[in-house]
C-alpha cells in the first residue's frame, strides 16, 4: 500500500500537512472518518478515504459539518476511535452539536481537525478556531511542522480518552498544503468492535451520552481542563530555544514558529532573542508560560490570526501576585504584528527590528516594484475561471439565457463552492450575493 497507508515503520515519507494528519489518525487506529470538503482541509479526508477499504475502516463525505461530527461522535459512543475534519467556516455549522457534546463527554477517542485560512486564500472570512476552543472549553493542539502534524494527531486520541473529551487540532493553510518529511510509526493491527454502553456511571437511571445534569457536567468540564493543563505543562510539543536571559522573548505557535525562527536567524539574534513555541494552545500551560515570562521584560506575540495568545497570556499575567514584574507586550494590540492576513518571515523581522532598534532590509527597496511589474510584462493575464470541462460554466450559461428570456432582471444568490466564480466572467456575472453554505438559492 502506498501513500498515507504505507506500512513501513521508521521510514520517512514526503507528505503535505493534511496527509500527515491523516497518517496520524491511521496510527491512532481510527475506525471511522467523516468530513465535509472545504479548502484547506479537504486532503485529510481524501487521503483517508483512499485507503479506507484496504485498511478496513469506514469513511464518508457527509452532507455537512454538523452531520460529519455526529457521525464521528456516534462511532466514539460505540467505542470506535473517530476523526472528523472541516475548514474553519464548517465549525460554525457543527457548533450546535459540538457545544453539547463537550458537556456529555465521549466514548473512544474523538478528534475534530479544523484548518484555518489566514488571508482567506479560499474562504470568506479569517475565522480563528482558537476562540471557539476557548469558548467551548475544548482542549486544542496546533502543529508547527509536518512531523508534529502526524504525531500530534496520534496523541490527540490518547488525550481525548484520558480527558473523556473531544479534542481539537488547528492547522492553517501553510501547514495543510506545504510538504515535508514525516517519519512513520506503526499501524495498529487490532480490529475494533463496536459496543454501545449507554449507562451513565453517575446517574444509572439516565443515558450516558446526554448533556444532563448540565450544571454538574459543567463543573466536571472545568476539572477536565485543569487536568489537560497539567498534562500540557510537560508536553513535548512545547519548547524553548534561546539564551537563559533574553533581551526579547517571542511566544508563538503553529507555522508562526517557523517564521519566528527564520527571522531570528536572519537578524543573527540567536544569543539575544528567545522563542517559546507552544503546541498545546488551550488550555495554556500556565506554569510553563510563567517560568519563561521571567526570561525577558519584552515579550513579542507572533500568531495568526487573532491576538489569542496575546490576550490569554495578558489575562494570565493579570492574575500574578501584585509584586511580580510586568513585562511589556508587543503584538497585534501594539501594531507590531498585523491583526489580519497571513504572517511571513519578513513581517516578523520587521517587528523584531523595530522593538530591538535595528535597521534591516530583507531585499532591495526596488524589489517590490519590480515584482509587481515583471509578471504583467512577461506573462499574459489570466482571470480566475472554472476548470476545463466543469459543468458549472454551462449551468450559468443556461441560467443567464433563461433570466434574459424571463425579462424580470433576475439574478443568482449564491453560497460557497467552486460556483462562487460566477461572481465574475467565468459565470457570466450571474451571482450577486455570496456568504455561506445554505445562503444561496
Textual characterization of the structure:
- With 441 residues, the chain is an alpha/beta fold.
- The chain has 3 domains: 3-233, Rossmann fold; 239-356, 3-Layer(aba) Sandwich (Rossmann fold); 391-434, no CATH class.
- The protein has helices at residues 17-27, 42-55, 65-77, 88-104, 129-136, 146-163, 173-176, 214-233, 255-266, 286-293, 308-318, 345-356, 367-378, 391-406; strands spanning 12-16, 32-35, 58-61, 82-87, 110-116, 140-141, 167-172, 179-183, 239-241, 248-253, 273-278, 280-282, 298-302, 328-330, 412-414, 431-434.
- Strands 3-2-4-5-7-6-12 form a 7-stranded mixed β-sheet, sandwiched between helices. A 5-stranded mixed β-sheet has the order 9-11-10-13-14, sandwiched between helices. A two-stranded antiparallel sheet has the order 1-8.
- Helix 2 links the parallel strand 2 (32-35) and strand 3 (58-61).
- Helix 1 packs parallel to helix 2 (42-55) and helix 1 runs parallel beside helix 6.
- It is globular.
- The chain starts with 11 loop residues before the first strand and ends in a 7-residue tail after the last strand.
Amino acid at each position: 500500500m502506498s501513500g498515507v497507508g504505507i506500512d513501513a515503520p521508521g521510514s520517512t515519507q514526503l507528505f503535505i500537512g493534511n496527509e500527515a494528519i491523516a497518517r496520524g489518525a491511521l496510527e491512532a487506529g481510527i475506525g471511522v472518518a467523516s468530513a465535509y470538503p472545504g479548502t484547506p482541509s479537504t486532503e485529510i479526508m481524501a487521503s483517508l478515504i483512499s485507503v479506507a477499504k484496504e485498511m478496513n475502516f469506514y469513511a464518508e463525505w457527509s452532507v455537512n459539518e454538523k452531520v460529519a461530527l455526529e457521525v464521528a461522535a456516534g462511532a466514539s459512543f460505540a467505542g470506535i476511535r473517530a476523526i472528523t475534519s472541516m475548514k474553519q467556516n464548517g465549525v460554525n455549522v457543527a457548533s450546535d452539536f459540538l457545544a453539547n457534546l463537550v458537556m456529555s463527554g465521549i466514548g473512544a477517542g474523538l478528534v475534530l481537525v479544523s484548518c484555518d485560512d489566514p488571508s482567506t486564500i479560499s474562504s470568506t472570512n479569517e475565522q480563528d478556531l482558537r476562540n471557539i476552543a476557548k469558548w467551548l472549553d475544548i482542549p486544542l493542539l496546533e502543529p508547527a511542522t509536518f512531523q508534529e502534524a502526524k504525531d500530534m494527531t496520534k496523541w490527540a486520541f490518547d488525550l481525548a480518552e484520558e480527558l473523556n473529551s473531544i479534542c481539537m487540532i488547528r492547522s492553517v493553510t501553510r501547514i495543510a498544503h506545504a510538504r515535508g518529511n514525516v517519519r512513520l510509526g506503526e499501524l495498529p493491527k487490532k480490529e475494533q468492535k463496536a459496543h454501545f454502553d449507554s449507562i451513565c456511571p453517575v446517574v444509572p437511571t439516565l443515558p450516558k451520552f446526554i448533556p444532563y445534569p448540565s450544571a454538574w457536567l459543567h463543573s466536571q468540564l472545568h476539572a477536565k481542563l485543569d487536568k489537560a493543563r497539567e498534562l500540557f505543562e510537560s508536553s513535548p510539543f512545547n519548547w524553548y530555544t534561546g539564551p537563559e536571559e533574553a533581551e526579547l522573548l517571542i511566544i508563538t505557535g503553529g507555522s508562526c514558529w517557523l517564521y519566528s525562527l527564520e527571522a531570528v536567524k536572519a537578524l543573527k539574534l540567536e544569543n539575544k532573542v528567545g522563542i517559546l513555541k507552544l503546541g498545546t494552545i488551550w488550555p495554556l500551560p500556565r506554569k510553563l508560560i510563567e517560568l519563561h515570562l521571567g526570561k525577558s521584560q519584552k515579550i513579542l506575540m507572533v500568531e495568526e490570526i487573532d491576538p489569542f495568545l496575546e490576550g490569554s497570556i495578558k489575562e494570565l499575567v493579570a492574575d500574578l501576585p501584585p509584586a511580580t514584574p510586568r513585562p511589556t507586550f508587543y503584538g497585534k494590540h501594539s501594531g507590531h504584528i498585523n491583526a489580519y492576513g497571513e504572517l511571513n518571515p519578513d513581517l516578523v523581522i520587521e517587528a523584531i527590528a523595530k522593538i530591538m532598534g535595528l535597521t534591516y532590509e530583507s531585499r532591495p527597496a526596488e524589489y517590490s516594484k519590480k515584482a509587481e511589474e515583471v509578471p504583467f510584462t512577461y506573462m499574459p493575464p489570466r482571470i480566475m475561471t472554472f476548470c476545463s470541462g466543469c459543468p458549472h460554466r454551462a449551468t450559468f450559461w443556461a441560467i443567464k439565457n433563461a433570466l434574459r428570456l424571463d425579462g424580470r432582471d433576475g439574478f443568482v444568490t449564491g453560497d460557497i463552492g467552486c460556483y462562487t466564480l460566477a461572481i465574475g466572467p467565468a459565470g457570466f456575472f450571474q451571482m450577486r450575493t455570496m456568504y455561506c453554505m445554505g445562503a444561496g438559492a
